[in-house]
Specification:
heterodimer, A: about 300 residues, alpha/beta, Elongation Factor Tu (Ef-tu), domain 3, Rossmann fold, 2 domains, seven-stranded antiparallel beta sheet, seven-stranded mixed beta sheet, 10 helices, B: about 475 residues, five-stranded parallel beta sheet, 18 helices, 16 strands
């Protein structure tokens, strides 16, 4: 059992938790992930490490309430316990030799982008950050990004905060103006990573993407997280858990990855609805409290 | 008394019934049948069965106790050599080991040694609950990496000698391949849990959620005060065929398919971890894992399940009993054919069609057997132009595994062979002092009992090594 030492709702559907896992806290580096199970019957889900406190022995993960498991996890209170928390898994983000980077985050991907931007900043890199959200209400971690970035650009799809448009707009402007980075590193939905990669490719700008496919064990055993990479004119199979999670964006077959990510969509929808029913009262109480706070 | 020329049959679920449930296929001997079967043992002097057992169980002695109705004594005889009798009695390929050398087998059917072992272990688990009398502590700590058959055996043997043993397991449950790989209907998970529980009573500590090579390195394990390490981390990464269509949505490795069903319990009616159920399923490969995957697919409600294998029935590497069970249950064998492509659904008018990316068929080419290869198996050769499609909804690829790189890549001085298997000497010692290894991490995919044999050998070597310290 692993204790949730601290819990903070960044938004009603974006939660940050610090989990007591001293061995993981000692080891985890930016870009790595953990796998957790909420309870003994639960599924295993991968979440990226958002930070560690070695003294406290805690590991921070930030999750978006998007399915049955994250719904259950949302309602584990501070001081409560989850069944399993294992890691750190995957390879840390490659930072050696980097002097000038552009970190791009989309939506909940920003929870992963933030610790990477911070790590680059602390390593003395010049960090340009572009983060994008659907609207103003969904903006997260703005202060943290500001502290970690030499140049921060915030985008929103509807223009309700920052500039209007998606993250590729300012990226394209910069690249077209002749700006170049040692790498552009992208965190977010597959479709956003695909188009960010295409934008980079247009200008010959190297691009790294952080993949988070469906996985079970996270140690290479199941092969569920496999991706198709186009390498030297050949299709190669790679496992996100042991070969990644960061990959050269130019090589990733995003269309295949997008299809695979939807394998269990109907099942997941059903499970999420069931979880919503289960936590209906709690959700309603939260909504009422938010409404009261606004009023 | 005249000797019965035939083994006593083991009661089992009828094929048409068991094809629709996950309960164990074989139901085991009753005490009466067990005693009658034991009577068939001649207790011959040269005991060929014992030397054919990878862990050298004193087979005639335990059978002798069964004859007298002393089932607990029989158990103690077995437990002296094997830490997992209820598991071995079920999944060992006795027909190529102990039973293949049985003197009775020269003229008649051999004694049902596996069935008797299973009976004794189940009888013990049902009737006894006393705590073992622990030996005096040796004052040495040993770490075991992985809680599969080799790790549990090594841990059990060392704990029985008085070592302080910790088993590190990457997953959330102990048992390794016994819980994620072998299906419930062949090896009930309650039996594995019980065997692990028994080891804990001997003082073995099992730490789940620790990935050696990630959470801790081998060097850090030594820094924590462990004086020897046994690596039994298993086979590792699943192989794929590298043919077009392998990244389609409903293509699984056997490891993933079985892990979802077994470890994550996706076979239940309302699971938290999903799996494709029903439709037509193709399983590629001819080993025990392929049989397990095929029979699992059937129980998950598939209409048709095909085993696609590039050689003929004679060359199937799976155990005869597993193939027989599969045939009885209605698994269809598509032999002498090899997949060349997996075809998928694609609706060009609707990119959001949820069926996009689902498998629709597997394209195979017919094969014929040519000249024998280095191992003496006749090499399958494709017949040009013979491609044809089998309509299926799910494909499971069961063509073996490659060693996991996690430990190798984080342990300095640990030598591996060309295939990535850890190199060991006859005692299981690796190129690092105090580090031993065994099971699939060394040999590549093999059997439960050979892994147990390796765990046993290493435990004896570790005992000798630490006794000198």
């Amino acid at each position: 059992m692993f204790k949730i030492a601290h819990r903070k709702a960044l938004k009603p559907t974006v939660i940050s938790i610090d989990v007591e896992a001293p061995l993981v806290a000692k080891k985890a580096k930016p870009g790595q992930f953990i796998i957790l199970r909420v309870d003994d019957e639960g599924e295993r889900i991968p979440l990226t490490v958002a930070g560690c406190n070695k003294e406290e022995g805690t590991v921070r993960v930030i999750f978006h309430v998007a399915g049955a498991t994250t719904k259950k996890l949302k309602y584990v209170p501070e001081g409560g316990y989850i069944a399993d928390f294992v890691g750190p898994l995957g390879n840390p983000t490659e930072m050696e030799g980097m002097k000038r980077v552009c970190v791009v985050g989309g939506g909940i991907g920003c929870a992963i982008a933030m610790p990477i931007a911070t790590a680059f900043h602390e390593a003395g890199c010049e960090v340009t950050t572009i983060i994008g959200f659907r609207n103003k209400d969904l903006v997260i971690l703005e202060d943290e990004f500001r502290a970690a970035s030499d140049n921060l650009i915030i985008m929103s799809d509807d223009g309700s905060y920052g500039r209007e448009g998606n993250v590729t707009v300012p990226l394209k402007e910069m690249l077209a103006a002749g700006e170049r980075f040692d790498t552009v590193i992208v965190f977010g939905p597959l479709i956003m990573m695909k188009f960010t990669t295409l934008t980079c490719k247009e200008f010959g700008q190297p691009c790294t993407v952080s993949m988070c496919p469906i996985m079970i064990d996270g140690t290479g055993m199941c092969g569920g997280c496999r991706l198709t990479l186009h390498k030297d004119g050949k299709d190669v199979t790679a496992f996100a858990c042991v070969d990644g999670p960061d990959f050269n964006g130019y090589e990733v077959d995003f269309d295949a990855a997008i299809l695979r990510s939807q394998t269990y969509a109907p099942f997941e929808r059903h499970a999420y609805e069931e979880a919503c029913n289960l936590f209906k009262a709690a959700d309603e109480a939260e909504a009422a409290a938010l409404a009261a706070a606004k009023a | 008394m005249a000797l019965d020329p035939k083994k006593h049959e083991m009661p089992s679920q009828a094929p048409e019934v068991r094809a629709h449930n996950f309960n164990e296929v074989a139901l085991g001997y009753t005490a009466e049948i067990a005693v009658a079967e034991a009577q068939r043992c001649l207790e011959c002097r040269n005991r060929p069965c014992v030397s054919a057992c990878p862990v050298n169980i004193s087979i005639p002695e335990f059978i002798h106790e069964i004859k007298n109705g002393e089932f607990e004594k029989a158990y103690q005889v077995i437990y002296g050599s094997s830490s997992l009798p209820a598991v071995c009695g079920r999944v060992c390929p006795q027909e190529t080991q102990c039973e293949s050398k049985c003197t009775m087998g020269v003229k008649f059917e051999p004694v049902g040694i596996g069935r008797l072992e299973r009976f004794v272990a189940d009888w013990h688990n049902e009737h006894t609950c006393e705590n073992p009398i622990k030996p005096a502590p040796k004052g040495h700590k040993v770490a075991v990496v992985g809680s599969g058959p080799s790790g549990l055996t090594c841990a059990g043997d060392l704990a029985k000698k008085g070592y302080d043993v910790t088993v590190f397991e990457a997953l959330h449950a102990a048992g390794g391949v016994l819980v994620y790989g072998i299906p419930e209907f062949r090896l009930p998970k309650a039996i594995v849990a019980k065997e692990v529980e028994t080891l804990k009573q001997w003082g073995v500590e099992v730490r789940t959620d620790v990935v050696i090579g990630k959470t801790l390195t081998i060097d850090e394990v030594f820094e924590m005060g462990y004086e020897a390490v046994f690596i039994g981390s298993g086979a590792g990464l699943p192989n794929f065929m590298h043919i077009p269509g392998e990244s389609l949505k409903t293509v699984y490795s056997a490891n993933e398919f079985l892990t979802r069903s077994n470890l994550m319990k996706a076979y239940k009616d309302d699971p938290t971890t999903p799996i494709m159920k029903g439709g037509n399923v193709a399983v590629v490969g001819g080993g025990n894992v392929a049989m397990d995957a095929a029979r699992t697919a059937l129980r998950l409600g598939a209409d048709n399940v095909y085993i696609i294998y590039r050689r003929s029935m004679e060359e199937l590497p799976a155990r005869a009993e597993e193939v027989e069970h599969a045939v009885e249950e209605g698994i269809q064998f598509k032999l002498l054919m090899n997949p060349v492509e997996i075809l998928g659904y694609n609706n060009p008018d609707d990119r959001r069609d949820p069926k996009n990316g689902n498998v629709t068929a597997i394209r195979c080419i017919k094969m014929e057997l040519g000249e024998p290869d280095a191992k003496g198996r006749r090499r399958p050769v494709a017949i040009p132009g013979s491609e044809f499609d089998i309509p299926v909804d799910t494909v499971v690829i069961a063509i073996g595994t490659s060693p996991n790189p996690l430990i190798k890549s984080t342990t300095k001085g640990l030598e591996v062979n060309d295939h990535g298997g850890i190199i060991v000497n006859e005692d299981g010692l690796t190129s690092r002092e105090g580090v031993y290894a065994g099971g699939d991490a060394v040999t590549g995919a093999a059997t439960v009992i050979s892994a147990m044999g390796a765990g046993k050998t290493a435990a004896a070597a570790i005992d000798e090594y630490l006794s000198k310290k």
